[in-house]
Amino acid sequence: MKPFASLPSLFALLLFVLLSLRLSPSCAASDSAYDAFLQCFTRRTQPSDHVSGIVYSRDNSSFAGVLVSYIRNLRFNSSSTPKPLVIVTPTRESHVQAAVLCSKDLGVHLKLRSGGHDYEGISYVSEDDFFILDMFNLRSIDVDIQGETAWVQAGATLGELYYRISEKSNVHGFPAGVCGTVGVGGHLSGGGYGNMLRKYGLSVDNIIDARIVDAEGRILDRKAMGEDLFWAINGGGGASFGVILAYQIKLVPVPEKVTVFRVEKTLDQNATDLVYKWQFVAPTTDPGLFMRLLLQPVTSKTQKGQKTLRVSVVTLFLGNSDQLLAITDKELPEMGLKKENCIELSWIESVLWWDGFDSGPLPALETLLSRDYAANYLKRKSDYVQTPISKANLDWLWKKMIELGKVGLVFNPYGGRMSEIPASATPFPHRAGNLYKIQYSINWSEDDPELEKNYLAQIRRLYSYTTAFVSKNPRSAFLNYRDLDIGTTTNGKNSYEEGEVYGGKYFNDNFQRLVKVKTAVDPSDFFRNEQSIPTLPN
Ligand SMILES: Cc1cc2nc3c(=O)[nH]c(=O)nc-3n(C[C@H](O)[C@H](O)[C@H](O)COP(=O)(O)OP(=O)(O)OC[C@H]3O[C@@H](n4cnc5c(N)ncnc54)[C@H](O)[C@@H]3O)c2cc1C
Ligand SMILES: *[C@@H]1O[C@H](CO)[C@@H](O)[C@H](O)[C@H]1NC(C)=O
Ligand SMILES: *[C@@H]1O[C@H](CO)[C@@H](O)[C@H](O)[C@H]1NC(C)=O
Ligand SMILES: *[C@@H]1O[C@H](CO)[C@@H](O)[C@H](O)[C@H]1NC(C)=O
Ligand SMILES: *[C@@H]1O[C@H](CO)[C@@H](O)[C@H](O)[C@H]1NC(C)=O
Fold it and tell me: According to the UniProt entry, where is the signal peptide (predicted)?
């Protein structure tokens, strides 16, 4: 029998055990994960890569601040939301390569975040142990106005992109989303649509080239990655295939003056007639005219104590107000648009107007460079409408919305350029045959789990009420309106069957091609998430 260890070392052991018990296990795990990551990161980069100051451990006093700066949905800012072991904030492409290889070496899940606007927070939340690769420092934008193109890094925002284009030209723009703080990395790789989609299609219909880091840590441009992978990252979601470093985009012409307006009608002002007719006009009218509808239950101003539904028509027209009125007088007189409702602006001013400044004077254009964001608690869902909803059904829907009380709908008309592009041209399949997309929307500002349960139930109930009015087999959805209700994967042995469920809804017949590309470029499924493209079984 061996003698007991010396008294001092026994004491040391006891002290260690006591200390370990006091430390939370995740905290201790984080420290070692940080050390291991940093060691690998240093090994996988050159001294000239300047790696100091870009990796944040959980113990770092800036960790929480860096994490929350791009959380755009407060549902995922609670103390119970899983936190990453490490946040990496690359300032060079070589850092991205090293981060991919080190996550692979250490077998830790890597989450990719650009602007953080994912509605389900999947760019910065995971049930597994995970690192975050946060792209916000990689935000350069290089506009070539002679060539009518631009290179834009993934961590840039749409507002920055629009601003940099407008610095060089007042007759160029780019068709992408209407919220300036949305990130290029998630938005463009997921499709990207905005108020010029009827004229120019989606963002991905206007992309020329890209640079990505693949699962082997290689930097590939379009030529090196090949047309299949290039196709996949233009609407199939970047996060299943690699890290998007940058896209080269094609700028589009915009007139010197565009026209915007907002017109509102409630049910007593025949809003139902307007919506009914809108379904026939908005998807077929002049492609330069984008008339979005916002539908929301509100308290009636005319009938005391009554609830009603308010319809707001929010519009961009690529032309002047006389041309616009000639169209709306003829095609949609139910709207009652008058010259005094119309505001003529430069395109870049219209971007600001759409980005939350549609009442009162416009702020300085530099507002588009701001990354400030007043986050809310929220949930979104999406649907596609392929045949007009009857007046009786619209009235029934309004009644249900008023009963529920808080869920709003947004109708975004398609048609125009959207109907000309084949469904297989990009992974985004919702083209000809779709009249408009519905977004279901609910926001709240209280940190209250009971309320959250109630609000999530409300939006799901409204989604169930509309079943008969929307696309079927599958009931389609828009990837950028991330919704984990429509199916998820645990990336285990059933990932293909699980992926078919949500993948069929987001990508319809394009799902199979995405699976083939995925299987070819990332067979070990390094780039995965709750709704990623699976590899083929076996
Ligand atoms: C306020 C608001 C307004 C919106 N308006 C519009 C709109 O007008 N039109 C529209 O189409 N959509 C809109 N969206 C949805 C938006 O396009 C998507 O949420 C988009 O994915 C956000 O991109 P992000 O980089 O900001 O998000 P992130 O949360 O950073 O990323 C979203 C997804 O992309 C992945 N990803 C991020 N960066 C990379 C990268 N560099 N390489 C590979 N994968 C990456 C993430 O892992 C995640 O899966 C809006 C969202 C919000 C919150
Ligand atoms: C926190 O991490 C950052 C990034 O690596 C580093 O620059 C900073 O010095 C760290 N702060 C502390 C207090 O350790
Ligand atoms: C997110 O949570 C942290 C910690 O509770 C809190 O300090 C912070 O204010 C929250 N962020 C927002 C935008 O509410
Ligand atoms: C609503 O429509 C009815 C019937 O077409 C019409 O008589 C009425 O004037 C309209 N009301 C408004 C406010 O336009
Ligand atoms: C939720 O908030 C967003 C912006 O923060 C707004 O555009 C949208 O209309 C709101 N939706 C509802 C239903 O209030």
Answer: 1-28
Pocket test for ligand 3, best of 58, 77, 444, 445 (most atoms within 8 A of CB): 77
Rg, C-alpha atoms of the chain: 25
**One domain, residues 32 and 126:** yes
Report whether residue 135 contacts ligand 1, using a CB cutoff of 6 Å: yes
Q: Tokens for 45, please give them.
A: 């980069």
> Looking at the CA of 375, which ligand is closest?
3
* 278/415 same-domain check: yes
Question: Which runs of E-coded beta strand occur in 115-179?
Answer: 130-134, 141-144, 149-153, 172-173
Catalytic residue (choose from 70, 455, 463, 481): 481
pLDDT digits (tens, 9 = 90+) for 450-462: 999 999 999 999 9
Whether ligand 1 lies within 6 angstroms of the CB of 152 is answered as no
In a domain, 501, yes or no: no
Q: Is 481 a catalytic site residue?
A: yes
Q: Which residues pair with 384 in a beta bridge?
A: 437
Q: Which domain holds residue 264?
A: 258-341+375-469
Q: State both tokens at 342.
A: 């119309």
Burial of 422 per CB tally in 10 Å (0-12, 13-18, 19+): exposed
Dihedral Cα 447, 452, 455, 457, nearest 10 deg: 180
Q: In terms of Cα–Cα distance, which of 228, 247, 249, 245 is closest to 112?
A: 245
Contact assessment for residue 361 and residue 269, using Cβ atoms and an 8 Å cutoff: no
The count of other CB atoms within 10 Å of the CB of residue 182 is 25
- Give yes or no for residue 270 CB within 6 A of ligand 4: yes
Same domain, 318 and 232: no
Please list, in sequence order, all residues whose beta carbon lies within 8 angstroms of the beta carbon of residue 121, skipping any fewer than 6 positions away. Answer: 71, 73, 75, 76, 81
Of the ligands numbered here, which is closest to the C-alpha atom of 88? 2
331 three-state secondary structure: helix
Written as one string, the DSSP assignment of 345-387 is: E-HHHHHHHHTT--SSS---GGGGG------BEEEEEEEEE-S
pLDDT one-digit tens code per residue, 330-372? 999 999 999 999 999 999 999 999 999 999 899 999 999 999 9
The two three-digit tokens of residue 40, written as one number? 């690998």
CA 497 to ligand 4 center in whole angstroms: 52
Ligand 4 midpoint to CA 270 (Å):
6
pTM: 0.94
109 and 202 housed in the same domain:
no
